[in-house]
Amino acid sequence: APGRGDRAERAEAERALEEWVLAHRGVEIFVEPRTAVTGTTMLLVAHDGEFTRRRVANPAAAAAFARAHTLPIYEAAVVGYPQRMRDYSRRQSVLRKRAAGAELEESED
Known about the structure:
- By secondary structure, the protein is of the alpha+beta class.
- The protein contains four helices and four strands.
- It has a four-stranded mixed sheet with strand order 3-2-1-4.
- Strand 2 (about 40-45) and strand 3 (about 50-55) form a beta hairpin.
- The longest helix has 26 residues, at about 85-109.
- The N and C termini lie far apart (about 60 Å).
- About 10% of the residues are buried.
């Protein structure tokens, strides 16, 4: 049936998100509105700024997930993104550049 794969895919995506929530502390949800290019997305941000983003059917689906996991939920378009998320991205970028630099030095030896 055409709907079955979608349902299984959604269930798997939700399981993956639940595992992410269980593996991280202080998770908050930021709902990103649908655009011409992408559907509604749900951004989960942990206490340290690590984050993951998943598409959701609609804002109500994100709200239901937040309720089911007792997580705070915000509209990204209203409140913006948390500073800790930007800091995390910046740290990851620095670490990637350092790692690339270290690989370069090793290959020159």
